[in-house]
Design goal:
Helix content: over 70%
Low-confidence stretches: none
Number of helices: 21
Mean pLDDT: 78
Largest sheet: none
Number of strands: 0
Radius of gyration: 23 Å
Distance between the termini: 18 Å
Amino acid sequence: MSAKTIIKGTLIFAVSGILCRIAGFIFRIYISRIMPASQIGLYQMVMPICVLGQAIAVGGLSTAVTKYTAAYSAQKKKDKGYVNFLAALLCCTAVSTIIAVLIIKNATFIAKVFLSDNLCKSLLIIAAYSLPFACIHSVISSYFIGLELHILPAAAQVIEQVIRITCVFTFAGIAEQNGESPDASTALYGILAGEIASSVFCFIAVIFLKDRYKTEEAALSKTPLYYISEGIIQLAVNYRLALPITANHVCLHLMQSFEAVLLPMMLITCGSTNEQALATYGVLTGMTMPLVLFPATFTNAMSQALLPDISKSWQTGNLSRLNKSMQLALTLSCNIGIMCIPGFFFYGAGFGGIIFDNSEVIYQVRLMSLICPVVFLSTPLSSALNALGKSGTVFICSTLAQLIRLAIVVFIIPRTGINGYCYGLIASHLFVCLYMMAVLKKITGCSYSFKNLAAAPVIRSIICFFATIPIYTTLHRTGNMSELLCLLTGGGSYILACVISYIFMKDLQ
């Protein structure tokens, strides 16, 4: 395992992530024009409930499968890795099916008591059907990541997005032909279709590749009793790591669900009507945050590739390789995050306002651009700690951070409006980053360079921004190009300047 493996995996996941994000933007632009922001708000209120169900069923198992598949592969015990994967797959399928049935049976109660909106009942039922397929997709993808077959989970991700968007376009077209207006259920039917398609693809891939990734010992005839007993052992091994991660995900999503309900309510106490609060929440979660977090495609991809690398390095005692991998991941994350602040503030905000045809997006994007450095840095840090088996630390840290956000939502938003949400995100993620960096330093002895993580990226971003701003202003003054083209050209030149500056970065070489 080397830095080349991390970079290769990162590039594969980044390419698929970019394709999916672009497709997602097309999807969001489309639904923002065919349905009101309040419907998008209802859609965003329902999703945390289903994400919570997914966290219970597969939240920690997917990380455990990746870690132990990579560890068994390093020890030349791929047969145990395969049994480990099968045990996790069967368990998560059963648990996710039970959770889906519970959501469907109690949809009225959940919509009325927890979401405070009866319109969410039918949306919950549709979303619940996608839960088992999403869990199957997650576990199989985690197994492939552990085997370093990054192309397969990336392909499954792209297939999911393509099918989802195609189905939404089709369903919306049918509704309009029948004289009906597309609503939030249209988007949820698309999610269901996408998850079914991706899980079927993953199943087919497992069937075709199962013999290739088993050792000769595993190919020998073994009794069903062996697989049952070994499966129980491996399931226990999985849950020893998975339970703290699952608890982390469950608590996190529980609090995010409370946040999804509380945020519109707190906006109402700040002076907004119910319709305005839902619209603001819909713009924030359905338009602004997806745009601001678009570059997180790279840091998320890096974290997926980093987990098996850290796991193998830790398993073999190669601390030098582990620290080099961490330095690479953290330096890249900081550079991307800091680069995004001037990029979104000047170019991205106007671009978002035009493509979503919503002036509120401009203000929100400029505000939320400030969270990029801390949000992007927290992802590889939590991935590294999970790979080291410190999932309990991640759980405590994430829970405290979410409590900070909830406190700010309750006490600050009624006084400051949506600005308070930005303050909460910055405060919580900054706490996460500082805490995790301290824990990693204590465990591995890794060091952090202020120059590489903060000073150099800030100077680079400022130089690139002021070097390219004349391009935008010149094009804008000529009046020969539309505002959208001016923003794209100026923003593109800024990104290009940053990429060129990174090529010559000594701290990444």
